[in-house]
Amino acid sequence: MLRRVVNSLVGLAAVFALSIAAISIVYLDAYWNGIYVLSVFFGLWAVIILALRDDDESVYLIAYLLLILTGVLIRLYVTVSGFVWTDEGFHLSAAAGMLSGGTIAPAMMFLPQNIPLPPWRGIVFGLYKGWASLFGLGLPQMRLLAFLLGLLSLPLTFDAIRRLISRKAAWAGLVFFTGSSLFMLSHTGRNDSLIMLLVSGVLWVFAWAWSQEKWWAHALVGVSAVFALEGHFAAASFLVTFGGVYAADYLVQAVSARKLIVPAKMWGFLSTVLPLTGLYVWVHIISLPSGGALSTADAFLPERNLLLAQVDGFMARVQLWAGYTLLEPTLLLAAMIVAGLRRRPVDWLVLGLVGFTAVGYLLLGTDPSVMHTLYGLPVYAVGVARLFDEDEDESLPVRQWALLLIALLMLGTQLRQGRLASEARDYFADEYAPIVESARAHTDPGEAIITPPVFVPFLIDHTTLFLHNYEPGVLRGPALAGEPPAIYWQRILLETWPAVYIAPYQVPNDALRIQQQYMEARSAQEVVEHVYVVDDGLLAPGPYFDVNSDAPLQIVAHAPPNDESLHTLWVSRGELPPAIPVVIETMAEGSVRSETTILSTVDWATVGFHAVELRLPVPAESRALVLRIDAPLSVCGSNCEVLLHVP
């Protein structure tokens, strides 16, 4: 027996070394060669399964450790090679703003100072700020933090499964955890790893408390569950997970005792989860400035039937997860079927955890993306672990072989996804390179750059201000600031003059309307080298800070003139006359000459940017122009007459 174990361990170590070499070749060589290497990889691991014909626990333990380490290494590669996710720029901008003394929000958002924490990200911005202050600000540093946070979930999940089921089940659950596509996708510099860690923490507290009868033990579950909301509001789904298990336990006891009120674990949970949830709602929603109470809810309410929308979203969640790897949700479903057939006390508990997680996602899931699905991975690992747990009347080796085979298939899928992520990174790097190089050529570090957030990691040494590519109703910044959305975004754009503008994605309805107007009015494609900015009636070389919200019409900038015309940029902030005369005067040969242009505002948006070509009175190489708006002060305010110094 000892010789077989030693031989198996040596064989496992040799195969593992060869597998790591195969992984390296996959990522260093061409993709078509990688397919052949993957075939060798699967063949070598098949040898492991055939070799493990005895039920010695030491052999299985080594196999589990190798599988877990392989999953961690694949995730590490994806961490350093995966393409940039848009929200990573959002979080980088937030950390940059905080390091420079701003509020706990991205630089592109104007939030009142009395908002202690945004209602949709919570502590993650502060965490990234502290990390950046120690290790520097950048995408690699943020992803390293996400990688480490994900690793911290492993011991918590392992011990939770051990307490709820058994040690052997805990190893099986950890193999599923580290080989899952959800674990691989938790590498980004967002808040995903943090929420996964917080949920695994709640699961651990629950597993420890479940065997306790003292009310305060279950009160701690409520405390940890509400604290998880600080990672992201989507963690509210897990209030349903643990609350549902406690409610089911109470119902069983009430039916058994034939009483409506019975002492149960649920009361300890409710003693903290209810007041703390109320406190969270007050701090993050009710106490916010004008419109803040609706700023979070409005973003998640669909325009059609709420129930149908939630069902559609839930099905989309499952479909997207299955699209990454069909094996994982299928395996979880099989585990639930087996638990339903066995119906032992631990099976009911596992069914409750996984089932109520699904209910939570159905009721409160705000986004069907896989990024939000991965928050439930610790709970899913509990479900799959029970499937491979040892029972007295069942053959353990067969179950172990099945687990190893499934783990190998999962890791093989992640290998291929890792390669695709690397190819996507290279593709986007090539796509972004010309724009990034052009921006750096025309600007200095510290200058403001208006850009889609995906460019932020490449221009981290600049002051990056961006408009997220969502519709205004989804963005909660205007409601938090208590301003109309169009005015809110117009202010941000105006206060970044002069700035480089990087063209947004060419996708219909992908950018805010005000952003599209801004791009068109400036005639910007990639980089605008220089634009003169009008400030208080005079030309100013710096940013435009005084947005005159009282005047519905205002000229804010112009480009260097050519021989015949002057390109100007205007903003509107209210109702305007349909036709407004604009006169340009200049001195030529000792006399004043003028040219009148009629601004037709019939098709202008009430709040927006507008490009206007004004004809010049005389073609001269240098001039001092006076621009006069022939309209009442109520229309143009202090900008009715503007002196434009044009070199």
Can you walk through the features of this model?
With 647 residues, the chain is α+β, with helices and mostly antiparallel strands. Helix content is 57%, strand content 11%. The chain has 24 helices and twelve strands. The strands form three sheets. Strands 5-4-6-7-10 form a five-stranded antiparallel beta sheet. Strands 9-8-11-12 form a four-stranded antiparallel beta sheet, with no helix packed on it. A three-stranded parallel beta sheet has the order 2-1-3, with no helix packed on it. A hairpin with a 6-residue loop joins strand 6 and strand 7. Helix 3 runs parallel beside helix 20. The radius of gyration is 30 Å and the shape is elongated. The N and C termini lie far apart (92 Å).
Write the layout of secondary structure elements.
Blueprint: H1 2-28, H2 31-51, H3 57-81, H4 86-99, H5 124-135, H6 139-164, H7 167-179, H8 181-184, H9 192-210, H10 215-227, H11 237-257, H12 265-286, H13 292-295, H14 297-300, H15 306-324, H16 327-342, H17 345-364, H18 370-373, H19 377-387, H20 396-442, E1 448-450, E2 463-465, H21 477-481, H22 485-494, E3 500-501, H23 513-522, E4 532-535, E5 538-540, E6 553-558, E7 565-573, E8 579-588, E9 591-600, E10 607-615, E11 623-629, H24 633-636, E12 641-646
Parallel strand pairs: 1-2, 1-3
Antiparallel strand pairs: 4-5, 4-6, 6-7, 7-10, 8-9, 8-11, 11-12
Helix pairs in contact: 1-2, 1-3, 2-20, 3-6, 3-7, 3-20, 4-5, 6-7, 6-9, 6-19, 7-19, 7-20, 9-10, 10-12, 11-12, 11-17, 15-17, 16-17, 16-19, 17-19, 22-23
